[in-house]
Structure formats: structure tokens, C-alpha cells
Amino acid sequence: MDENEKLELCESECIHEDIVRFVQAKLQPAGDYEELANLLKLFGDPTRVKLLHALEQHEMCVCDLAALLGVTKSAVSHQLKLLRMSNLVKSRRKGQNVFYNLADDHVRQIIDKGFEHLWE
Amino acid sequence: MDENEKLELCESECIHEDIVRFVQAKLQPAGDYEELANLLKLFGDPTRVKLLHALEQHEMCVCDLAALLGVTKSAVSHQLKLLRMSNLVKSRRKGQNVFYNLADDHVRQIIDKGFEHLWE
DNA sequence: TTAATAGTTGAACAACTGCTCAACTACTCA
DNA sequence: TGAGTAGTTGAGCAGTTGTTCAACTATTAA
Q1: Could you say which nucleotides of strand D lie within 7 A of any protein CB atom?
Q2: CA separation for the pair B55, B35 (Å, rounded)
Q3: How many angstroms separate the Cα of A63 from the Cα of each of A66, A76, A97, B14, B17?
Q4: Crossing angle for the helix pair B46-57 and B106-119, nearest 10 degrees?
């Protein structure tokens, strides 16, 4: 179903067609919102967002993070895997430890904007 | 259980205590991460993030959004309620229509950072 | 006042998510 | 090599979430 069909099939009749078409033209392809949601979803869990904020402060190994967050190493490792798959964190092994770091500065920026919204 | 107890009770023994305490001191109170996660969670659904990105382009009524997203007015209204409760959107009634707008610029900034991360 | 359209709400359900547990691999040191 | 610690993984589950449906309220126009 293309975008025009969606407009026609809609249950409603109050649609401001000119505006809807204007906005439609500015939106990204549907798949982009899927990807974006899958990325931003990772910030939507208290454990994960605390974990990310912690890694903003200093690189840490899985044990450190588990202690800091008060959850098992397994739980941390599961979350880190998701974050790694979305390129939010990167890891480096040093002996028995695997140290985790933020992959780039976007994490910090998103978390900062979130806190700004809450605090302002 | 305070933060020191968490450290002591942890199953692991490899903890880098100095680093963990250093990071601990920089973290926010636990409740802040709950709030932050509840906020950012709203960006973690394709329908909602598309809706927000659409409102970035122009204010729209519920019918317009339903047509644009290809979902029912009910679904849109449920989502808008969540977004309103978190001060991400605001509404104004004009006759039979209720027009929705972004409440401030944080939405745009968070979505932009998300797309940046995906595209860079 | 009545009919019509816009929008909201609560219940119910299917799909998803984050945790724990147990079993596994990886590395180190004696 | 073998024991010990760090980390990963998959299954299973309890709790959560996004949608639809049906019933409701709000506003307008005749």
C-alpha cells in the first residue's frame, strides 16, 4: 500500500490533505523509523541507560558494571551485547577482563538532551 | 541497600574498586535513570518516533496523523497521550480538531542525534 | 435538539523484553 | 595440564507494551 492509498483508506474524513502531503514529502522511508526506534529503544531501560551513563565516566569491565548496577554479570553481558550490536559501545579484552567503552559521542549527546528535557 | 553494600555483595571479585567508586560518585540518583528511561522509551517505537518526526515538520490533528501513519485514530490518540504526559507534545483545540505540536526542541535534537548515529 | 464528525478512554490480547539460571568458552597462573 | 576467575550464551518466565474494539465525550451545523 503506498502513501496515497493510506490517505484514501483512512477511516477519517477531516484530513488536511495539503498538510499531510507536505509532511509526507519530508519524512524518511519507513525502514528508517524502524531502525531509529530500534536504536533509541536501547535508551529506554533504566539499567541500560545507567550503564551507558556510567561508561560515559570511565571504561569498565563487566564485573565493575555488575557491581555498580547491582545486577548479575549475565544481565550486564546481555545488555552489552545489544549495545555492541548497535555500535553504542565497543569492547577490548585485556587479559581476563573485557573493558567496555562508549563507541562514539552520540550516546552522551542523547542522554544529555534527555536529562535537559527532564530538568528544564 | 546502599551502594557500598552492592559492591560487597556482588558475586564477582575482579572489581576495580577505585574506578567503580569514582564512577559511582558521578552518577545521578537511581530515580533519575528511571525517569530518563521512561522518557527515552517514548522514542523507541517506530509509530511514535515517526509521529514525532512528522510533528517536527508541521502541526497536525489526530486524523492527519492517523492517515499519515496508516493506523487508527485510537492508536494515535493513545500514543499522543503518552507523549503529552511526558511534555514532548502539546495540543490546542480548534473547533472539532485538536492540533498537536512538539512541546520543545529536545525531540528534534534527540531524533537528529539518533539519525546521525545511524548514518555516520 | 439532533445528527454527524473528532477525539479519548479502558479492557483485552498478542507480541516483546529483561531478568535469572545453568551451561558453556576464554584467559591466566601455578 | 588443570583449577579458578571473567565473560558469554540460550532457554524460560514474569512483566510490559502497542494495537484493536467498543463505548464514551466534545464540538459543530442544521
Answers
A1: 4-11, 17-23, 26-29
A2: 23
A3: 5, 9, 9, 6, 10
A4: 120
- Give per-residue pLDDT as tens, B14-60: 788 999 999 999 999 999 999 999 999 999 999 999 999 999 999 99
Domains, chain B, ordered by start: 45-119 (1.10.10.10)
* Grid-cell match 496515497, residue found: A4
What type of residue is B61? C
pTM: 0.91
Contact B68 A14 (CB under 8 A): no
Amino acid B98 CA to nucleotide C6 C1' distance, rounded Å: 8
DSSP codes, chain A:
--HHHHHHH-S-S---HHHHHHHHHHSPPHHHHHHHHHHHGGGSSHHHHHHHHHHHH--EEHHHHHHHHTS-HHHHHHHHHHHHHTTSEEEEEETTEEEEEESSTHHHHHHHHHHHHHH-
| B chain contacts of residue A26, beta-carbon cutoff 8 Å | 57
pLDDT confidence of residue A12? 53
Strand intervals (E) in B1-120: 60-61, 89-94, 97-102
Check: CB of residue A12 under 8 Å from CB of residue B67.
yes
In which region does residue A100 sit, left (phi positive, over 0), alpha (psi from -120 to 50) or beta (all else)?
A: beta
Q: Give the type of residue at B53.
A: H
Q: In chain A, which residues have their Cβ closer than 8 Å to the Cβ of B119? A: none
The mean per-residue pLDDT over the stretch A72-82 comes to 97
The alpha carbon of residue B19 and the mean position of all alpha carbons in its chain are separated, in whole angstroms, by: 30
